[in-house]
Amino acid sequence: MHTERVRGGTDRSVPVGDSSICVGGVPDQTGTLRAVETPHDDPNGFLYERIADELAGVIQRGGLRPGERMPSVRRLSRERDVSVATVLSAYVILERRGLVETRPKSGHFVRRSRTAEVPVPSVPRRAAAPSRVTIAAGADELIRAMIHDRGLVPLGTAYVPAELLPLRKLNAILASVAREGGGPGAGYDELRGLLQLRRQLARRSVAWGAALGEDDFVTTLGATEGLSLSLAATTRPGDVVAVESPAYFGLLRLIDARGLRAVEIPTDPETGMDLDALEDAIRAAPIRAVLVSPNFQNPLGARMPDASKERLVKTCARREIAVIEDDVYGDLAFDDTRPRPAKAFDTQGIVLSCGSLSKTVAPGYRVGWVAPGRFRDAIERLKFAHAVASPSPTQMAAAEYLAGGDHERQIRRLRHVLAAQSRAYAEKIAAAFPAGTRVSRPQGGYFLWVELPDTTKKTLAVELQLRALDRGIAIAPGPIFSARQRFGNCIRISTGHPLTPRIEAAIVELGRIAELLLSG
Amino acid sequence: MHTERVRGGTDRSVPVGDSSICVGGVPDQTGTLRAVETPHDDPNGFLYERIADELAGVIQRGGLRPGERMPSVRRLSRERDVSVATVLSAYVILERRGLVETRPKSGHFVRRSRTAEVPVPSVPRRAAAPSRVTIAAGADELIRAMIHDRGLVPLGTAYVPAELLPLRKLNAILASVAREGGGPGAGYDELRGLLQLRRQLARRSVAWGAALGEDDFVTTLGATEGLSLSLAATTRPGDVVAVESPAYFGLLRLIDARGLRAVEIPTDPETGMDLDALEDAIRAAPIRAVLVSPNFQNPLGARMPDASKERLVKTCARREIAVIEDDVYGDLAFDDTRPRPAKAFDTQGIVLSCGSLSKTVAPGYRVGWVAPGRFRDAIERLKFAHAVASPSPTQMAAAEYLAGGDHERQIRRLRHVLAAQSRAYAEKIAAAFPAGTRVSRPQGGYFLWVELPDTTKKTLAVELQLRALDRGIAIAPGPIFSARQRFGNCIRISTGHPLTPRIEAAIVELGRIAELLLSG
């Protein structure tokens, strides 16, 4: 199973001597720690996982500070009335998540973070007038190498590896769907998308705090088609739209393809789009739509506070400006709470909220959706014009998978893995990159935004990318995240893949190249 | 299997008394005709089918005229050195295709066609200046009812029923693909589309006379996405494009969605777009692209002669005008020959040729492609922006299906069935509709274009559609096939479904309503 592979190969029992297991300082241990079985195989597993989650929460809320000693295994075992093995298992998990470290003969401690000493990236200055999107020569090839980086060290990808996804389960469902009755494929699906899938989305939207109905959704080909249709439904060529700065490069491509102009709104790496700047921009230019990703924005990982989401939606509703929301990373909160989308604050139907299963279940299935509010008819017309309908087999399998109930557990596991990976990558980058480098502190998703100290070298990131490619390493250079090719000294590092020695070496190599470029 | 259902339920032997079987006048018959087994179950089946095809060819080329006596069963049996049962089986097939009829005690005759006495629809006058596409209020609802006419008599659909498609086979392949190795779904597919699928398309293109390579294709979501991307790659909003008149309404939607203007070029129901008129239009307005469906155009069923295709491509290449070809019906030739697409005459890479498996294999899989010539890079960029990639599982299943070798046989059977249905529907319409009605003579595909005699009543078709809907019958009204709402006295009738008594009754009812509206 995928979670086993991440947490410790496929071993079902972990020897004490394993360097990644923290049993030092605990005297009453027998030779082997048997408890590290995958929780869905062992019902008791839920207990140690629950304890680990609780302790992680305490650490994340600051109840236990970096360097502080954790409660002893015996004390916790006594207080909770659980076995020592269970507590130890919880600590193994915490260590693997990068939250706890073991000091020989001293016990467990909250890990000191090297990242904590590294500043977060700066917020860009305000943008000038709206502009067309500039796409650098050769950017397409670079993006392609970055996305399809088979064979390359995968620091450029926008997806997690297969072993973190429930592909076996999903494909088994697809196989059974294909064999049921007549099977899928006859006729075209409903324009709005498969009803069973929309029902599952409606059911899940309750957890988002949005409580939408099955007819509030239109299914799409990943979130990307949702975003594309949303732009087409709310703008005409030549119109101005507001985007985050930096923004997901795919959005900028869409803006370019549709002949729109973009105003870049400064975006804080922690709290998201600067709403004062947005309001200034709205006063200065006739903005038709705001494109925003309030939850774990790509590339910053920023999470906009709920109050800001509400203000954003109100501001736009008052002026009849559409809010096109990319909520594709919303399920990947490191602290296990699903933040609300902007859609949850939408009383006027002005928000078109796009999501997908690409980041949590299966990118290659291309199953996504848009909750288009008052623009539903326009979205349906455009979807029909562009592709008549979405494919049936993949929608059917996705609907049945979501109905099956494994999804929440899958997301929960994925969050924990990604949280640990994000922290581990940040540590490595903090250690390997030149002094003065800034690194983002994402609260979800799987990207780190890395700002190199010299802001005068506009081609730094692209040069770094090219030299890295020569060495078989894929990264995403900053300028592709800006309509005006800003962020020449920034790169995005994907943290979706487990931090293997190969990847560690690649990060060291990137740091070395960066040092070289900065001194050159 | 699907073909059995069409040709005679699931019976494996057909009693002589069956009214649809023509054994009268042949004295040396035993009680039961055993030969009508489906050819893929019985290797001998190929022989009688081959004889039927040969005879059909002779009839279609005029070697045997309507009303003329067919060679006697005994004579053919002797001449071909085959059994009487084999010849009889060939005649059964010909009768089911509507080419031959049996007269009691006289033998087999080439069927006299009532359709032959009905004139073909008129060619519309030349269009005026380019115009925006007008979409009538309520047209969306009507199109939806037409496409998803579950429960309605399906004379409006653009697809054939499930039993005529190899869905069982395809879905079995999908199931096995889903279980193989890791299964599909991890990561995104190549931008250009699944390599195995593109290889199959390249292999098939040899038969089209186009001989394209695997890198000459980009896979899409049905042909529709191919057409949409092609328009986006070759035009800017406000540009003028030339379309057939009448044209497929989906194309007109795309033109509208992209903010283009259309010049409607008169299109002959038999030979397709009027190239003199096109050249006039090119001189009069700056046309950027010509949208054309040279093979079995929807809705007319016209087939453009190869010489005209060549002239069209040359004319456009000289002026750097893109040719966007919809070849989605190209495989459905009634005379069993696959006509060449315009792409086969493209030496300059100016043709973007779109096709799909929606009309022959599985509409709901949404597997299509575009051979974009010199516009490939632009198409790939746009495809990435709109949807990142196509879904993997459906492409994988389609590729394996095409590699399997059943496809050619499937298409061949489907052609025969559709040819027979087209003739049978035309006969019924000729009999049931008001005097002066004109009916197209498609040479492939599954539509009939019906022109009612009164050209002054601009709302005739829409009124007919609304009244028909009230009676549970779906049809497609003429004006949706025109940018300027022309063809107010025309309707499109789908002939994809076997002509059941229910459908026959619906045609009679349509004729009655038309009569009423014309006299009203």
The most extensive contact between chains is: A-B, 66 and 66 residues
User: Structural class of the helices, strands and pairings of chain A?
Assistant: alpha/beta
**What's the rounded overall pLDDT mean of chain A?**
85
- Unreliable stretches of chain A: 1-45
* Radius of gyration based on Cα positions of chain A: 23 Å
Largest sheet of chain A: 8 strands, mixed
Report the strand count of chain A. Answer: 18
What's the helical proportion of residues of chain A? 25-40%
Walkthrough of the structure:
- Two copies of one chain form a homodimer.
- The first copy, chain A, is of the alpha/beta class.
- Helices cover 39% and strands 14% of the residues of chain A.
- The first copy, chain A, has helices at 2-8, 45-60, 73-80, 84-96, 139-147, 167-179, 195-205, 222-234, 249-257, 275-284, 306-318, 376-387, 392-404, 406-432, 460-470, 501-519; strands at residues 14-15, 32-33, 100-103, 107-110, 153-154, 218-221, 240-245, 261-268, 272-273, 287-292, 322-326, 351-356, 367-371, 438-439, 447-451, 473-474, 476-477, 490-494.
- In chain A, the strands form five sheets. The first copy, chain A, has an eight-stranded mixed sheet with strand order 6-13-12-11-10-7-8-9, with helices on both faces.
- In chain A, helix 7 packs parallel to helix 13 (392-404) and helix 15 packs across helix 16 (501-519).
- In chain A, 57% of the residues are buried.
- Chains A and B meet through helix 5, helix 6, helix 8, helix 9 and helix 12 of A and helix 5, helix 6, helix 8, helix 9 and helix 12 of B.
